Amino acid sequence: FLRPEEATEIRVEFDPAFKVDRVCGVVKQKLLVHYQDHPQKDHVNLVGEVVFPNLRLSEEKLDFGSVLNDTTKQMTITLENPYPLPVNYQWMFLEECELSHPDEHLGRIESLGESGSLRPFGDSGVL
């Protein structure tokens, strides 16, 4: 209840922990104000950005096709950090049985690939 010429402050919080998929994104919602005994409705647009250390991959699949015995085939994939947080990353090979739940196997994998850091896209530092 506000009397004439009276003002009050309300605290509005944004908690990025609700975004459990750990993928960067922008959240948009409205804060609605309803009046008792009056049909008027007002709103305030709310915008919050959740930023995690994520990478963008240039490919989702690398298909090597048939590779003859005693030969090799090389393909490349680009890792990009388009977000404002630096990213420390590591890559590894997963066995077929591990693909369905990769997070469960991270502690048991012995053959790690490379690791490194990527600075945010557009940063003047070297990738």
Structural features, described:
With 127 residues, this protein is mainly β. Helix content is 3%, strand content 29%. It has one helix and six strands; from the N terminus they run βββββαβ. The protein has one helix spanning 102-105, and strands at 25-34, 41-50, 56-57, 79-80, 87-92, 112-118. The strands form three sheets. It has a two-stranded antiparallel sheet. A two-stranded antiparallel ribbon has the order 3-4. The protein starts with 24 loop residues before the first strand and ends in a 9-residue tail after the last strand. Residues 105-113 and 122-127 have low confidence and may be disordered.
N-to-C series of helices and strands? EEEEEHE
Strand order of the largest sheet: 1-2
What is the rounded Rg?
24 Å
Put simply, the count of helices is: 1
Helix content: under 10%
* Overall average residue pLDDT: 80
Please tally the β strands and state the result. Answer: 6
Major sheet attributes:
2 strands, antiparallel
In whole angstroms, how far apart are the ends? 56 Å
Structural class: mainly beta
List the helices and strands and how they pair.
Blueprint: E1 25-34, E2 41-50, E3 56-57, E4 79-80, E5 87-92, H1 102-105, E6 112-118
Features:
single chain, 127 residues, mainly beta, two-stranded antiparallel ribbon, two-stranded antiparallel sheet, 1 helix, 6 strands, 29% strand, disordered C terminus
Give a brief description.
It contains 1 helix and 6 strands.
